[in-house]
Specification:
By secondary structure, the chain is of the alpha+beta class. It has 11 helices and 10 strands. 18% of the residues are buried.
Length: 327
């Protein structure tokens, strides 16, 4: 073997470079890097130990010391005038003096009759409805019930009052209101048993529910129906006045013309098998028959104007539905 071949076979010594310097071992290069990092941290001040916080006791030089006063013997605050041999105080004179100073005026005592009289509270001023409120909308009830797309005897496609309100608005609201509220969400009270429009009223009735404190029912071969006002309604409630006025309007017309009313009846029935209510069904217009004043809740009996149309409807489904709801 030649000398040149032997030199090629000798292992080359590894060289480690860092920061312009050459190190023969890896450990030396790592130590150089660590020293560089240490120097940088010390130069930045990050390695300085935190200075301990010195707590000093705060001395209040302005602390005031209370001087104890010598106890002064006191006489008992209450002593009998018999033992003290002093004149009795005249409390009436003191009271009169105070009234004169304050300018007090004695009120005349109420008689027994006046005490029993309770002054009536002033009537609350009606709050105008919001722009999107159902109470600001006029609706053509005859078109809604008997029009080309009338809903007499029809069950709504979906449950709930909101669907009824929106469907009625699209079918029979006056054109001005439809333009004014196009694309708006209508506002109404879904928890109340009555819904006012500007010129009409919807009455909501639940049938077959065991949870109702009152029982609504159809009477006189389904020509009449009972309805109960809400817990806060009384004889002087504005909505009750409106119902009485609208329900009695047909009495003033006279003649043989068919009575018309802007009070619309919507019913839904509780299904015991599904434990849910059906969608609402429109059973037409109502006129006033009677009610029980000062009852709580107020009880009304209404006449079904469209009874014969429902009972003799050309659609068999409507006839069967009316019979199922009213029996």
């Amino acid at each position: 073997m030649t000398t040149s071949q032997h030199d090629n076979e000798v292992d080359e010594i590894p060289v480690f470079k860092f920061n312009g310097k050459v190190y023969t071992t890896y450990e030396e290069m790592v130590s150089a890097k660590r020293k560089r990092n240490q120097d940088m941290l010390e130069a930045s001040g990050l390695l300085k130990p935190p200075q301990p916080q010195l707590y000093t006791t705060r001395v209040n030089s302005n602390k005031r010391t209370r001087k104890k006063q010598a106890a002064v013997p006191q006489q008992p605050s209450r002593r009998s005038s018999r033992f003290s041999k002093s004149e009795k105080p005249n409390y009436k004179e003191v009271s009169t003096f105070i009234e004169q100073k304050a300018g007090a005026v004695k009120k005349r005592p109420r008689s027994a009759t006046e005490s029993r009289i309770v002054s009536p509270s002033p009537a609350a001023t009606p709050v105008p409805p919001a722009a999107n409120s159902v109470r600001s909308i006029c609706i053509d009830t005859k078109t809604l019930v008997l029009g080309e797309k009338g809903v007499l005897g029809q069950m709504m496609d979906r449950t709930g009052k909101e669907f009824v309100i929106n469907e009625s608005f699209s079918l029979a609201a006056f054109s001005d209101d439809q333009k004014r509220l196009a694309g708006s969400r209508l506002s109404f009270n879904k928890y109340c048993g009555v819904q006012e429009f500007k010129n009409a009223v919807f009455l909501w009735i639940n049938l077959g529910s065991k949870d109702n404190p009152v029982v609504n029912d159809f009477l006189n071969d389904a020509q009449q129906v009972s309805w109960f006002g809400g817990s806060r309604m009384h004889d002087e409630s504005p909505v009750i006045h409106k119902l009485l006025k609208m329900g009695r309007q047909h009495d003033d017309k006279g003649g043989n013309d068919e009575p018309h009313s802007d009070i619309i009846l919507w019913c839904r029935r509780y299904q015991s098998d599904t434990k849910q209510f059906t969608p609402y069904v429109c059973f037409g217009r109502l006129t006033y028959h009677s009610h029980v004043p000062q009852s709580h809740p107020l009880k009304f009996i209404w006449n079904l104007v469209d009874h014969d149309r429902l009972k003799n409807h050309s659609d068999e489904v409507v006839r069967e539905r009316f019979a199922a709801f009213t029996t």
